[in-house]
């Protein structure tokens, strides 16, 4: 499956900056709507080492209210987490939308069917059973009302080597590269097979995977932000205002507003017609003639009244 991904997609700097700011501001507006509507959003980031997961998460959170989100960097379980079922440490990190509206997982429960599978940290029976357990777990989240998005950031083997060497030669980035990264790179093919199995068996209707073309970091970041904005706005039935202060054209919300305005115009026209009818002179009920106008007032000038 991964072999069919086209990694040639790119963006110019101008396109990147314009799209980045646009989707970041839209996501900030949606974050407030998540709070208002009490809907939690869970974002899962998986991908190759040096694929750009951290950079993408940074752009996702850059303009969000820090009180409304939390990022979990998932590593090997330690302490109490190690004594429970592998999903327990993720259940305990879920928070109600009153407290945190957006939960971001930098690596996740999918370690069970990748790292733990390939490094022998669990039995074959356990990691094969995990596909069903994960699907059930995610279905429960979605049934509760959680908006769940899962991203696999994909890069080529050649691009990964290029980024490894850049990290190695850059002093302030060197800490990111470890001997384990080089060792995992040697297992590229077996990891690729595990990823294919994961995508095929856990991409469901309720929680589909989004494979992001990551060779160009700018393109990957914008693609992730756009996917989040499109999905969340659809789930919340929210239309972004345009330059006139109304919702975007074609949205359900705007169509309803237009229909309401038309109904108001019709009602206004009917009311105006009734007012005109009311203003017509009333007829005398006995003679069927219009009522006489009141007797004119006597002039106050020195001239005598008519007939004298």
Could you describe the 3D structure shown?
It is a single chain. The protein is an alpha/beta fold and 308 residues long. The protein has two domains: 2-236, Rossmann fold; 244-277. The chain has ten helices and five strands. Strands 2-3-1-4-5 form a five-stranded parallel beta sheet, sandwiched between helices. Strand 2 (69-73), helix 3 and strand 3 form a beta-alpha-beta unit. Helix 1 runs parallel beside helix 9 (217-236) and helix 2 crosses helix 9. The protein is globular and about 80 Å long.
Give the SSE layout.
Blueprint lengths: L12 H25 L3 E7 L5 H9 L7 E5 L14 H4 L10 E5 L8 H4 L5 H21 L2 E8 L2 H13 L9 H8 L1 H15 L6 E5 L3 H20 L15 H27 L30
Parallel strand pairs: 1-3, 1-4, 2-3, 4-5
Number of strands: 5
Please report the first level of CATH classification, the CATH class of the largest domain. Answer: Alpha Beta
Order of helices and strands: HEHEHEHHEHHHEHH
**Helix-strand makeup class:** alpha/beta
Alpha-carbon distance between the termini? 114 Å
**DSSP summary: helix tally:** 10
Instruction: Specify the CATH homologous superfamily of the largest domain.
Output: P-loop containing nucleotide triphosphate hydrolases
- Range of helix content: 40-55%
Largest sheet, spatial ordering of strands: 2-3-1-4-5
CATH architecture assignment name of the largest domain: 3-Layer(aba) Sandwich
Low-pLDDT parts are: 248-257
């Amino acid at each position: 499956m991964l072999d069919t991904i086209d990694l040639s997609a790119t963006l110019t700097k101008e396109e990147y900056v314009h799209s980045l700011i646009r989707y970041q501001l839209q996501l900030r507006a949606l974050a407030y709507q998540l709070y208002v509507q009490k809907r939690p959003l869970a974002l899962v980031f998986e991908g190759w080492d040096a694929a750009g997961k951290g950079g993408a998460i940074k752009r996702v959170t850059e303009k969000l209210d820090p009180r409304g989100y939390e990022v979990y960097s998932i590593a090997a379980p330690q302490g109490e987490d190690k004594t429970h079922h592998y999903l327990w440490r993720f259940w305990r990190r879920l928070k109600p939308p009153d407290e945190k509206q957006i939960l971001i997982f930098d690596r996740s429960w999918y370690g069970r069917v990748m790292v733990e599978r390939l490094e022998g940290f669990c039995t074959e029976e356990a990691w094969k059973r995990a596909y069903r357990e994960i699907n059930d777990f995610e279905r429960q989240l979605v049934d509760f009302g959680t908006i769940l998005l899962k991203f696999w950031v994909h890069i080529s083997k050649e691009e990964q080597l290029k980024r490894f060497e850049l990290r190695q030669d850059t002093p302030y980035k060197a800490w990111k590269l470890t001997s384990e990264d080089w060792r995992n790179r040697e297992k590229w093919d077996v990891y690729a097979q595990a990823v294919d199995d994961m995508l095929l068996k856990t991409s469901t209707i309720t929680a589909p995977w989004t494979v992001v073309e990551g060779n160009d970091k700018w393109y990957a970041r914008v693609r992730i932000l756009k996917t989040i904005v499109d999905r969340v706005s659809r789930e919340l039935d929210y239309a972004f205002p345009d330059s006139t202060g109304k919702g975007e054209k074609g949205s359900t919300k705007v169509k309803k507003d237009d229909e309401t305005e038309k109904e108001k115009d019709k009602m206004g026209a009917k009311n105006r017609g009734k007012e005109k009818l009311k203003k017509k002179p009333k007829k005398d009920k006995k003679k069927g003639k219009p009522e006489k106008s009141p007797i004119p007032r006597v002039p106050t000038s020195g001239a005598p009244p008519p007939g004298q």
